Amino acid sequence: MYFNLAFFIVLVSLLLQGTSLPWMAKLLKVTVPPDPAPISRAALEVHATSEWELFVYRLGAEKWCIGAALRELKMPEGTRIAALFRGQQLLHPSGSTTLEVGDLLCVIGHEHDLPALGKLFSQAPQRGLDLRFFGDFVLEGDARLGEVAALYGLKLDGIDPGMPLSQFIVQKNRGEPVVGDQIEWNGTIWTVAVMDGNKIQKVGVKFPEGTRPGPGLFL
User: Fold this and answer.
1) Integer Cα distance of 140 and 159 in angstroms
2) Rounded to whole angstroms, how far apart are CA atoms 78 and 108?
3) Which helix (H) or strand (E) holds 57?
4) Digit-coded pLDDT (tens) for 177-205
């Protein structure tokens, strides 16, 4: 009986923790950056059961592959670059062809190739202001530190839990904030993402490699 009771308590605890993450994320207005995706995709009906698709990627200036030759790209096994458009011109790419900003790449592959292709080529569709470069998540500047700490498992160490995140950054930064200002707190990097006059409106948070919170925050 005691074992069953203990098991029930642990189970309820785990369920509450999992379901509270989305609620806390909504409370803090956490923004999750959009996943990279091709700007266009279409099925290639080679045969009745064909799963081949044509993916179209536009290369943005922030992509590391700009200036690289095609032979330097680590393409997913089985994928092929079918065509390259530069402006209004259709090029026939070879291994020595170098990529430029604005190039349109047409790639043949399967759906399971999308994550790897996204890392190479994607410029995710704009959704208002693109905040992906400020961290793994973006929070409102008026989020309370106590709520932020509870959501991400951070230690306050005597800091006022009612203090807004924006005020905390101003105090740590010791100066007038500007977009791009960064502070370190609990091993995470906090970056000013959006300003409204002299007020911090949005803040990005970047977690150390391998410690980003799990999928509960994406709901």
Assistant:
1) 19
2) 9
3) strand 53-58
4) 888 888 998 888 898 888 888 899 889 88
For the domain spanning 52-122, the CATH number is: 3.30.70.1450
Residues whose CB falls within 8 Å of the CB of residue 199, separated by 6 or more in sequence, listed in order:
141, 166
- The secondary structure of residue 218, as a DSSP letter, is G
Interval 93-113: pLDDT, tens? 888 999 998 888 889 999 999
For the chain, which residues make up each domain, given as ranges? 52-122, 131-206
Dist. CA 44–CA 108, nearest whole Å: 9
Q: Which residues of 35-49 are buried (b: 16+ CB within 10 A; e: fewer)?
A: ebbbeeeeeeeeeee
The token duo for 203 is 């803040």
Structure tokens at 172: 């740590």
Options 3.90.180.10, 3.60.10.10, 3.30.465.10, 3.40.190.10; CATH of 131-206: 3.30.465.10
Q: What angle do CA 161, 34, 102 make, to 5 degrees?
A: 135
User: What is the distance of C-alpha 48 from the center of its chain?
Assistant: 36
